[in-house]
């Protein structure tokens, strides 16, 4: 999809109403509960949108002053929120034969080096955001590259699309190849400049972005912590305890730390706005610390399976868990396909993930964990009209399955397991059609 098409899509009426089966959450569903009161399902209702915001939902058709978009028989959800994904890694998605550390060296770092070129960064950001929207993802927490221009390009492309986006220049000043290292002083100047220009502008927010403990010196981690302390509205994103070889490496690099997570704790990086990707190889102490700090773990099931990283303990998590694609370690931007992978990960652990917990983690749960629950993740009056319309079933197999589904969870679970981005009928961001 080209940017010209985006402009065409953005031509929307000021007041419009969307008819369909409305599904969202009013609270977090309990683990394993098939019929929770937290699920709000209004079959064949109208959602009213004015100036990019939801202003109501009702059973009866609105009066003629509202432009009607009739999606009767289709499913309407809040746009998905992907809490951990790498813009520059689209081109290394589905790369063969490695685990995390070799995968970074062989595939990822060369792809990221290309983003030093501003034109490459800008083109990459536009393709990436359009691909997110085509997957039904309207908000994201994104890693660009170490290059300042890669963060600028993402902010600018997100602003052009009206998207809620959290990102920040990647910090890495060691254990990375030439062309992908910064230094503490320059990195600090770049962060401050990007924060001044983009943080809190429209729907954009800045995340202090530590790639992971091995690629930052203690001095750089301290600088990142100081940035967080200076402004509590900043996010922080990083990776933690993804892979066992990585965990061993961190233990050798930071012998003074009690655990991998403790490296971040000591630097002042764990707080309510911290997004920690993976969190597979955590101990009980780490898990309590994440909950105490109010941080969240972005669970990346497709990536964890593809790279053979491990099976995340979701059922035992007392902290917020959101869902993420982690492309290019993950093999799909579709959070629907990640939900099915998450179900399989839990099945291998002897647990059962309901469609409700999975969907909540990709919508309201992620929004609340990011402190953005008033704006995104639901279909309530006052929230942004970030909406996706989905076909309940596409193709003979899914249609036959959908036709015999009786209870709501049975139907939604089968949809979650069988649907993907091809089921997306329409995607709106702040009331404007974007896919
Ligand atoms: Zn990642």
What does this structure look like?
This protein is of the alpha/beta class. Strands 5, 6, 7, 8, 9, 10, 11, 12 and 13 form a 9-stranded parallel sheet that branches. Strands 3-2-1-4-14-15-16 form a 7-stranded mixed sheet, with no helix packed on it. The protein is built from 15 helices and 16 strands. Bound molecules: zinc ion. The site of zinc ion has 6 residues, from β5.
Task: Summarize it.
This protein is of the alpha/beta class.
What ligands are attached or bound here? Answer: zinc ion
Q: Supply Rg.
A: 21 Å
The number of distinct β-strands equals 16
Our measurement of the CA-to-CA distance between the termini, rounded to an integer number of angstroms, reads: 9 Å
Mean pLDDT, nearest integer? 96
Portion in strands: 15-25%
Number of helices: 15
Shape descriptor: globular
Structural class: alpha/beta
Q: Would you identify the regions where 5 or more consecutive residues have pLDDT less than 50?
A: 1-7
Query: What characterizes the major β-sheet?
Result: 9 strands, parallel
Question: What fraction, in percent, of the residue positions are helical?
Answer: 25-40%
